């Protein structure tokens, strides 16, 4: 009798095991912010073939599924993989191969870093970036004199932090054929007392770029792999690369198919005649890791370099309004071309004048086309009467750390009234559009997703300044911020059905943090750590 009973129990156990569904990974004992429609919190989930198979309690998942690998989260919090809705992924990687000027507190420190870099690298053409004269005691643009003296035979080109101004020496100017008589539109070739200062703003910068040696394919591949590593460490599983050429896109595709390049990329193709002619007549190109279906257009420059196009003059420079980088008719022609294609148009617009032109053009073209999801990148300074144009079809794509980086000097540029009326107005944009897509704009800002989150909810720097928060009425809630970094960013990419939340059938892109970003003390947010990053159910960090 005992033998029969034992056989019966064994049979039940075997049948029970056989009845469980086989999956690749089970995560248990977690606090899972699913970011689904109800913003529900789960405890466990199963992953199969790179996608979420089921979400529920630990008991429900373990009684139904059996996995090759089980991860006990031990109460840690899990979130969908973060999506950076606006960054410069390829440029971030390239910048690691150049002299790093981020955080310099004076022009003297800039020069010191260049000298140290060149002693180690002996470059034939020195490039670098990250300087910001607004962080220096002397807030005027630097001049090339010191560089001319120290490097009389080696060309130098150094990008301002926002990528909208260059400091170059005389050798670089000569190499690019730039003189005091060089014609230009949309930007500036700065002169003082009839002589070049070495500062170029916006469009004329291209003359220098054309004269620089191009990176080799190996250097390009190294840049992509370096940027991927940096992004995985901050929980990013999808990055929107805002403005890249066909050559970079095709290299990304090749590396994703044949090498260990795993990052999911939403590519905005740069607005060049060559790119538009190649892509717009074709269907958007889509794989599980690469989505090429948008065009990036630059409307104006940046506020820090006074290149943003304003309706009224700059408060700190009489008679200066900034500038559109292309004639209005050129922008409208491109917008019409994109409207006739299946591609999305995403336009950089900082100043209220640039935003007005972009919003009016979008509105006229999209009235009878309700699901094009064209984006305004930055949407930084908006006239009060122009907020009405934003919607789920004209999407604000903003970068919260721009507010906390610019807050020290933004009032100097705009004046108090214009600043309060519609600058860095993320909450007002959200209320009007119903969503905001959040990004960093790295390497203009730091890669850190936690600084993005902190700037959105606290509107402070990491020194707790200002005490009450910068224009705190425009702060986002933690739930809104998490959505802006996940499901809303996915929506802005036409990818909300495949990523942005932890739901059955979506890519199993998720991260685990050391503390709960939704509940931790506000001042702890910048120092949070990603413990693990998973892409398609595979641990990548």
UniProtKB/TrEMBL annotation:
SUPFAM superfamilies: Composite domain of metallo-dependent hydrolases, Metallo-dependent hydrolases. It holds the Pfam family Amidohydro_3. PROSITE patterns: PROKAR_LIPOPROTEIN. Residues 69-541 form the Amidohydrolase domain. One of its GO terms (molecular function) is hydrolase activity, acting on carbon-nitrogen (but not peptide) bonds. InterPro entries: Amidohydro_3, Metal-dep_hydrolase_composite, Metal_Hydrolase, YtcJ-like. Signal peptide: none annotated. CDD domains: YtcJ_like. Gene3D superfamilies: 3.10.310.70, Metal-dependent hydrolases, Urease, subunit C, domain 1. This is Amidohydrolase.
């Amino acid at each position: 009798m005992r033998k029969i009973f034992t056989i019966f129990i064994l049979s039940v156990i075997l049948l029970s095991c056989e009845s469980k569904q086989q999956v690749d990974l089970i995560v248990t004992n977690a606090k899972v912010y699913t970011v689904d429609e109800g913003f529900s919190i789960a405890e466990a989930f199963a992953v199969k073939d790179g996608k979420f198979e089921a979400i529920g309690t630990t008991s429900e998942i373990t009684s139904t599924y059996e996995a090759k690998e089980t991860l006990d989260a031990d109460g840690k919090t899990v979130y969908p993989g973060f999506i950076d809705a606006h960054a410069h992924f390829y440029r971030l990687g390239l910048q690691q191969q150049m002299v790093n000027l981020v955080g310099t507190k004076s022009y003297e420190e800039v020069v010191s870093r260049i000298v140290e870099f060149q002693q180690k690298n002996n470059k034939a053409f020195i490039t670098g970036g990250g300087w910001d004269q607004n962080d220096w005691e002397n807030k005027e643009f630097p001049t090339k004199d010191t560089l001319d003296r120290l490097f009389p035979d080696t060309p130098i080109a150094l990008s301002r932090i926002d990528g909208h101004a260059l400091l170059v020496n005389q050798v670089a100017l000569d190499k690019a054929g730039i003189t005091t008589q060089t014609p230009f539109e949309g930007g500036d070739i700065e002169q003082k007392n009839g002589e070049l200062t070495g500062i170029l703003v916006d469009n004329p910068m291209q003359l220098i770029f054309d004269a620089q040696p191009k990176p080799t394919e190996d250097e390009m591949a190294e840049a992509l792999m370096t940027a991927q590593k940096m992004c995985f460490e901050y929980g990013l599983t999808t990055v929107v690369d805002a403005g890249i050429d066909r050559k970079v896109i095709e290299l990304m595709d090749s590396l994703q198919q044949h090498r260990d390049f795993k990052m999911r990329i939403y590519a905005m193709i740069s607005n060049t005649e060559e790119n538009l002619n190649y892509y717009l007549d074709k269907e958007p190109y889509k794989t599980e890791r690469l989505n090429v279906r948008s065009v990036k257009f630059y409307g104006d420059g940046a506020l820090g370099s006074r290149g943003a196009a304003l309706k009224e003059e700059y408060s700190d420079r009489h008679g200066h309004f900034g500038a559109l980088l292309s004639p209005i008719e050129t922008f409208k022609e491109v917008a019409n071309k994109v409207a006739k294609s299946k591609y999305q148009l995403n336009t950089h617009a900082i100043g209220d004048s640039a935003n007005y032109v972009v919003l009016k053009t979008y509105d006229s073209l999209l009235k009878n086309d309700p699901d094009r999801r064209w984006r305004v990148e930055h949407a930084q300074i908006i006239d009060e009467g122009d907020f009405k144009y934003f919607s789920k079809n004209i999407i604000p794509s903003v970068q919260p750390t721009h507010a906390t980086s610019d807050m020290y000097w933004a009032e100097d540029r705009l004046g108090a009234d214009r600043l309060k009326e519609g600058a860095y107005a993320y909450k007002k944009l959200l209320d009007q559009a119903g969503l905001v897509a959040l990004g960093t704009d790295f390497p203009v800002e730091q890669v850190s997703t936690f600084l993005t989150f902190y700037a959105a909810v606290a509107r402070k720097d990491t020194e707790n300044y200002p005490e009450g928060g910068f224009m705190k009425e425009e702060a986002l809630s933690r739930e809104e911020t998490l959505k802006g970094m996940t499901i809303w960013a996915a929506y802005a990419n036409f990818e909300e059905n495949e990523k942005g939340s932890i739901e059955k059938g979506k890519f199993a892109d998720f991260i685990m943090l050391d503390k709960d970003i939704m509940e931790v003390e506000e001042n702890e947010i910048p120092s949070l750590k990603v413990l693990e990053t998973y892409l398609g159910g595979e641990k990548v960090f």
